[in-house]
Amino acid sequence: MAALTGHPPTERGGWWHEYVCPAHGVELEHVGFETGEFPADGVPCAHGCRVDTEAVRGAWRVLAHHWWARRIRLLSYDGGGAELLTSYARLYLELTKAGEHEQAQGWMQRGRLFHQALTDAVWGVPISHAIANLAGRADLAETLPMLDDMVAGARRARDAMVAQDKFSSNYTAWFNALGTTASQAAAAVRGEDWDGEKEWLTGEHGQFAHLYVSTGDDGWEWEASTYYHGFVLRAYLLSLRGFDPAQVPDRLEAMIGALAGIATDGGILPALHDGPYRRVPLALEWLEIVALARQFTTNHGLDAVADRALAEVGPSYDGLEDRFTGWFAGPPRTGLVQSPALTGCYAVIRTGGIHAILDHGPHGGSHGHHDKLALYLYGATTPWQPDPGQVPYGHAQWRRHYKSVAAHPTIRIDGLEPAEATGVVRTGTSSVTAEVNEWYPGVRAVRHIESGDGYLVDVVRVTADREREIVLQFRPDVDLDVQLGPGVVRTTWTGDEVLHGYHFADAVPVTRPGPGPADDPQRTRIALDWTVVGTDATFCSVYSTTPVDVEVTGDVITVDGHEHRIGGR
């Protein structure tokens, strides 16, 4: 790796979610981190703005500090970075001597180097790994006050989560990760054996206890967000350096399986619930997770995810896996990682090149979206109708939009937001049915998904206790062509792969331009709404990657000679 000529920022950081263009809602461009100096003319957005506010400067410093932490860790694998670490340790003590960050928002658990203690932890883990890598090869005694302060901060932050009955929070995983890695690094610098396994890993409030309270039997982190699931999984894996995979609870393997279960054959990880739709730093995190998962189990099912992530971040990160060789104290597990099609959050149906996900599970707390009964449609490499993800939280208006029912391919009643809800699920040999009651008062909705011979059938039924405006929404991220014809409406969804849709409903589809997914709210996509005003509605669709013959007679839909009963139409 080339030598670094700049320096880390010399001021404390803020909240990275403020790194967003106030006009366009896009994350600002990642520029100037290697210099340590905020760009004199502001930071650009993809639409030509140059933004310079105190909030954006604070967010930029967060990202720059983290950029330096990652680079120093990479340098350390080749024996470099010791001088940077000692100078960074001196800077850390100077910047944090005032204590907690006075500019943190009221809802935050205050950090010292950044607004949030969580951000302190995410920064501190790679710094601690770098020190551990170099311990014994360089004099790092000057880093000990920083490491000891990190350990104390991690303990203090975790204790606060326990006291607030928030032990299951994703924050806790990172506080434990920082406590683990910083105390290990400090022990290595002192030439002592590490004695923190019980406190940080196996004890009452360690990582393994957190693993069980933050995930379900199916492996999903309780918020049911792809991003936060990976965020917590990465914290666990980074905590387990020198630990035998055979001694780790099976639930961690289930977490890996949950990711593999939603990934498409081409490596797309749908951005379910809160989290970026597409972001290069996130692709780097997926690369790191897969590299560690490969060391943990030989049957992880995430190779395509790694290939896609590497294509996003570029060839400079090829070989990242080599940095984690020997991460664990024992050999990788060899059992088959289970990736169930039905979990407590989602149902996945794969047929004929279609990767369909039905959202039926719990709302997901503050990171949940109003997306119950949404149907997401992907090809191997094409997001025909994806979960749109979320913008950086600092943009309140666009964040509100992407949490709303209007942003998702599901049912909307009277233009209102539904209550939080969890569906009741029934499964068949090749089908799944989810039902939701009272998410809108007096409204019952059922969505039935069935795989045929190379095609997918989707039937939505809604009943209400009085006349309501019932809307079924399509929300593509590809070019959508809509053609009305006698008895059937045809749609063509064109991306890298093409999807053909055949639709039957007593409603006229209305197209309109609207915002695409959250990576760029200014990217216009064609939204399609099917509207029925009444007390009941049935919407029937067939999807296939090749043209098929579809007919509807009464309550039976026939696809290439195969009959499916739809009922209620």
Radius of gyration: 25 Å
Low-confidence stretches: none
Biggest β-sheet strands, sense, barrel? 10 strands, antiparallel
Strand content: 15-25%
In round numbers, the mean pLDDT is 94
**What is the helical fraction, as a range of percent?**
25-40%
Q: Which quaternary structure do these chains form?
A: single chain
Order of helices and strands: EEHHHHHHHHHHHEEEHEEEEEEEEEEEEE
Jot down its keywords.
569 residues; ten-stranded antiparallel β-sheet; alpha+beta
Description:
The protein is α+β, with helices and mostly antiparallel strands and 569 residues long. It has 12 helices and 18 strands. The protein has helices spanning 54-77, 82-96, 117-134, 144-163, 170-190, 197-202, 207-214, 226-239, 250-262, 280-296, 303-313, 396-403; strands spanning 43-44, 50-51, 346-351, 354-359, 375-378, 411-413, 424-427, 431-437, 443-451, 455-474, 479-485, 488-494, 498-505, 509-515, 524-544, 550-553, 556-559, 562-565. The strands form 4 sheets. Strands 6, 7, 8, 9, 10, 11, 12, 13, 14 and 15 form a 10-stranded antiparallel beta sheet that branches. A 3-stranded antiparallel beta sheet has the order 3-4-5, with no helix packed on it. Strands 16-17-18 form a 3-stranded antiparallel beta sheet, with no helix packed on it. Helix 3 (117-134) runs antiparallel to helix 4 (144-163) and helix 8 (226-239) crosses helix 10 (280-296). The chain starts with 42 loop residues before the first strand and ends with a strand. The model has no long low-confidence stretch (mean pLDDT 94).
